[in-house]
Amino acid sequence: MSPHYHFIINPVAGSEHAKIVWPKLRQILQTRNISYSFDESRYPGHTEKLCRQYALNHPQAVIVLLGGDGTLHEAVNGLHKETKVSATLAYIPCGSGNDFARGLSIPADPVKALDRILAAKAPRLVDIGHYTEKFRNESAFFTNNIGIGFDAQIVYLTNHSPLKKWLNKYHLGFLSYAALFFKALKKQPTFKLEVTSPKGHQVFEQAFLCTTTNHPYFGGGVNLMPTAKINDGKLDLVVIEKKRTWPFLRLFLLMILPGHFHIFSRRVHHLQAPKLKLAVSSAEHGQADGEEMGTKPFEISFSINQQAFLY
């Protein structure tokens, strides 16, 4: 017996890309006599509520998300943030960054992504990260990464710039991060970072980028750590130190070019572990799956959970 698919559509994702795509996908579902229902999220946080409520009432259904990484972030928190609710998720990327889709090799074409979901025989378990932030007494989950410093600075500048909306209009939202790269480079200072893991305690006096990631990608397709895997039961911490601007520019150029030679730089530090703790005493920008965490000191602990995905 075929499963029932419940779609949650974020109509504003990717400058209304999800809203444009949905009628075409709906026609495919009707033509193939697929059992489905749908809801539309109406405001920030609505997807979290919709996902949790539907899963509570229909534990055997597959919840398919049409939106961006922020939509997925809300859905996962809806299932895990309070008492865990068992449900299977699927994802059709319609946002500007779509890094989670890259991490799972989900097609960027919504029709192909739908075909993949409908053809999948059984869900597979995928890692999701959990974090607890001491200063705000905040506990939540993430699918992509949490960044402190440079990448969070770019997220902040992007979210407060009209450029992102304009680029999304032409499905070029991934370029918004690149466009504000130099502004973030100028504004972001280095900071002291303390890292505690099962491997011991480390201190980085000139940290510039600090990202705890669940898969290789961040910033709309930049391959930050190519060896990171989304189903290995571990998180990957990447710390990049910056002493001078030009070496960092060269390092970032290597990051976006084929070959991934940036990982061999002595300024790039990589740690893989199921649990981590980070401490930053200065006020820095933070981001979780592209959503702002504010500008503040951080004392944040990480661990791993799992979620069933159909893909």
Task: Describe the overall structure.
The chain is an alpha+beta fold and 311 residues long. It has two domains: 5-122, Rossmann fold; 129-306, Tumour Suppressor Smad4, CATH 2.60.200. The chain has helices at residues 13-31, 46-57, 69-80, 99-103, 110-119, 150-159, 162-169, 175-179, 181-187, 245-256, and strands at residues 5-9, 36-40, 62-67, 88-93, 124-133, 138-142, 145-149, 191-197, 200-213, 217-218, 222-223, 235-241, 268-273, 276-288, 291-309. The protein is globular and about 60 Å long. The two termini are 18 Å apart. The model has no long low-confidence stretch (mean pLDDT 92).
- Please give the share of residues in helix: 25-40%
**CATH topology title of the largest domain:** Tumour Suppressor Smad4
Number of helices: 10
Largest sheet: 13 strands, mixed
The residue ranges in which pLDDT falls below 50 over 5 or more consecutive positions are none
CATH class of the largest domain: Mainly Beta
Query: What is the succession of H and E elements?
Result: EHEHEHEHHEEEHHHHEEEEEHEEE
Number of strands: 15
Class by helix and strand content? alpha+beta
What's the overall geometry?
globular
In the CATH classification, which architecture of the largest domain applies? Answer: Sandwich
Number of domains: 2
Proportion in β-strands: 35-45%
Write down the Rg.
19 Å
How far the N terminus sits from the C terminus, by CA atoms, comes to: 18 Å
Family: Belongs to the diacylglycerol/lipid kinase family.
Protein name: DAGKc domain-containing protein
Keywords: ATP-binding, Kinase, Lipid biosynthesis, Lipid metabolism, Nucleotide-binding, Phospholipid biosynthesis, Phospholipid metabolism, Transferase
Domain DAGKc: 1-134
